[in-house]
Structure formats: C-alpha cells, structure tokens
Design brief:
- The protein is α+β, with helices and mostly antiparallel strands.
- The chain folds into 3 domains: about 5-180, GAF domain (Beta-Lactamase, 2-Layer Sandwich), CATH 3.30.450.40; about 190-320, 2-Layer Sandwich (Beta-Lactamase), CATH 3.30.450; about 325-390, Winged helix-like DNA-binding domain superfamily/Winged helix DNA-binding domain (Arc Repressor Mutant, subunit A).
- Helix content is about 45%, strand content about 20%.
- It has 16 helices and 12 strands.
- It has helices at about 5-20, 25-35, 65-75, 80-90, 100, 105-110, 110-120, 155-180, 190-195, 215-225, 250-260, 325-330, 335-345, 350-360, 360-375, 380-390, and strands at about 40-50, 55-60, 95-100, 125-130, 140-150, 200-205, 210-215, 225-230, 240-245, 280, 285-295, 310-315.
- It is globular, with a radius of gyration of 22 Å.
Length: about 400
C-alpha cells in the first residue's frame, strides 16, 4: 500500500481507537479496521493472565465465539509464540514481532496448538505486538495479533514496524479504558462516575486548560504540594492551566514535554506509551504523585465543558497507599524481606536511606530489591511504583 494512503487510513484508525477508550463496544470495529489495514483475514485483541495463561477480555475479527472458546480452553500458555516470547525475554510492551522470528514454520506445524487451533482456522502466519506486559496491575498483559493463511503473502518488516508504531496509541486508548473502570469494571462515562473513582482524573482542553476535575483530583490539588492550576493569560476566560508548583520549576519543562507528547492524537510516528508515567516528588523529596496521560477523541459522553476535553490525566497519591507486605508475598511469591524492600520505594529516598530504614546494608537492600523487581516483572522504579499503587487502590 502506498505510504500516504496507509498514513491516511492509519490516522482514521487512531481516532476510532481513542473513541473506543470511552465506548468499549466500539473495539470490534477498531479491530476490523486494523485487520483490513494490515490485510489480515483474522485478528485478535486480547488480555491474559501470567502465569496461568487464562484469557481475559477478547475482541476478535473473523473468529467465531466457538473458535475463541477452543483457544481459551487451551489457554494462552500453550501458545508456542507466547512460550517462545517468554523464553527469549521479548514479551515486553511496545514491541512487535513476526511469527517466524519466534517459532519456525516446521516447529510450529509439529505442535498440538497448530494442529488443533490454527490449521482448522486456516491460519499459518502471525504478526503480533505486546500492548501491556503486566508490570502495572491496572492493566493485564494485552496483545494484538494479525493472522494470514499459510499461502497468503508473508508479513513483512514494514508490517512489523507499522504495528510497533500502532502499539503506543493502543496502549493509551486501552490505558484510559482500564483506568476509568469502577469497582464493577464499568467504564466511568459520566461525571458522577468519575467522582466515584479513587484516582484523580483531570480533563484538559487542547491548550491544557482544565475542563473538569473529579473529587479525588480536587482533593489532591487542594494540598498544593506538587500540581497547581494557573490562570490562562487570555481574557476573558474562566479556564486555568495545569502546571507544577514553583518548588518544582526545574521539572516544569520536562513536564510540559511529557504532557505534550501524551496529548498527541494524530498520526504520530513515535507516540509515548501509556506506561510512561511522570513521578512528582513531595516537599520531602520523596515520590508523592504518579501521573499518566493520554489523548481523547473529539467526541465524548460527557456534557460541556468536559465534552471539550482533549487530554485525560490520571493522578495517584502515593501517600494514601495502604499495602501490607504480606499481600506482595501472596501475589508474587516475594520473601518478606523482598516485600519490605519493594514497599520502601513508596517512601522514597536514596538506596542508603531506604536500607537504613530497614536496618540492612545498602548491598543487602539492593539484592532484596532486585529480587522484587524480578518476581513482579518490573524493570524500573516508575513501573514498581505504579504496580504498588494500583494494588493498594481499593
């Protein structure tokens, strides 16, 4: 397909995806449009648990409910591509792969998975990407897969590169959907439902003017420790702009760049991933707030002025967490020492300070924290912070 034609259709696809963030019933149409763009007769957008492989939500294109049941019954853990990606250490968010790079054709055809699932469906080729890898408990591991028949033209490096570019946008759309779920897993599509969420939600206009704050966000801003609202220098206007407090002036430029990238809805070739959180320190210098942001489609279910929002920001207060170390031991098989080391990340400070609070040496603390990173499948402090925060959110 001509690159300019692909870009035009890709741009339409992005607008559909961001619209589905607030109206999940639109995801099947998004998937169908994506499959057509990748010339894939079949496609699957699904989440699964690790390590059981049990399938969570599923949106399918040209795959029947009965065929999906067969796949779910076998579970993703028997999928040779998932197994290969885990073994090779490439099951990481934002990465796309061609099937033959993970599993050779001869190896695939010898598996029960191919014999019982793929061959009856006429599937012989795969182009797949990881949207979320499970490092944030708000978002289960999620993947998008395109399928072609064994005799269809092979997926190319262009297909893989274009899919990798799409993954960042999908992470932001799905991330909004996941973070907007209430305790009954319904998407909070009314302003009153937003007020029921424990996370702060800020709806911003294209100029970063605040169109709506939910109750949790109003509470966080009233503290005045990190984020504030500044009057816009355009009169007459009632709107105020999201900014950092003077204490954090040294972070303001980086914050502006981060929020600007997060707000990009158009055909961005390198969109920020939803998991690229911004961590703000409190007055003590310890991490206090974790922020995620993503663009919104021009249409939204909220009434004015919230309907003018083009950016959504989620804000979590680390000081309001209540997570016992026993919970981490239960969920991730951490040792008590590893769990206590992980929770020190919430309190913040240098490695020496965190080790001192636990009464261990810095080297011992580093070893314990490394064990926590490995068992929780997190790789950065921001990832671990988000995981701990999401687990402590009621």
């Amino acid at each position: 397909m001509d690159p300019s034609a692909f870009d035009a259709r890709h741009d339409d696809l992005l607008h559909q995806a961001y619209g589905a963030a607030l109206e999940p019933e639109r995801w099947p149409d998004v998937l169908a449009a994506a499959a057509a763009l990748w010339r894939a007769p079949r496609a699957l957008l699904y989440s699964f648990s690790v390590p059981s492989g049990a399938v969570g939500f599923t949106f399918a294109h040209n795959i029947s409910p009965r065929e999906l049941q067969i796949y779910a019954a076998r579970s993703a853990s028997t999928d040779p591509f998932v197994e290969a990606a885990q073994r090779l250490g490439v099951l990481t968010e934002g990465r796309a792969h061609l099937g033959h790079e993970l599993v050779t054709r001869s190896t695939l055809e010898a598996t029960p998975f191919y014999r019982d699932i793929w061959r009856p469906l006429g599937i012989g080729q795969l182009c797949t990407g990881v949207i979320f890898d499970g490092t944030d408990a708000h978002k289960a591991p999620t993947a998008l897969s395109f399928y072609r028949g064994p005799d269809d033209p092979p997926f190319t490096e262009d297909d893989r590169t274009r899919l990798q570019r799409l993954l960042g946008h999908l992470s932001r759309a799905l991330g909004v959907m996941f973070h907007l779920r209430d305790r009954e897993s319904r998407v909070a599509s009314t302003l009153s439902a937003l007020d029921a969420l424990t996370s702060g939600v800020l709806l911003l206009g294209a100029d970063r003017s605040v169109q709506h704050l939910n109750a949790a966000a109003r509470r966080m801003l009233s503290v005045g420790d990190a984020v504030c609202l500044q009057p816009l220098h355009v009169l007459p206007t009632p709107w105020r702009r999201l900014s950092l407090v003077p204490r954090l002036n040294q972070l303001q430029r980086r914050f502006d760049v981060w929020l600007g990238r997060a707000a990009t809805l158009g055909n961005d070739h390198s969109p920020s991933h939803f998991s690229e959180a911004f961590v703000l320190p409190g007055p003590s210098g310890q991490p206090q707030f974790v922020l995620n942001a993503a663009p919104l489609a021009p249409s939204s279910p909220w009434p004015p002025p919230a309907s003018a929002a083009r950016v959504i920001v989620f804000m979590y207060d680390l000081t309001r967490t209540d997570l016992p170390p026993e919970r981490l031991c239960e969920l991730f098989s951490l040792t008590p020492a590893e769990a206590k080391a992980a929770l020190q990340v919430l309190a913040g400070g240098s490695t020496t300070a965190m080790a001192t609070r636990l009464g261990v040496s810095a080297n011992t603390f580093k070893t314990q924290l490394a064990g926590a990173y490995a068992k929780t499948m997190t790789h950065r402090q921001a990832d671990l912070l988000k995981l701990l925060l999401s687990l402590s959110t009621p």
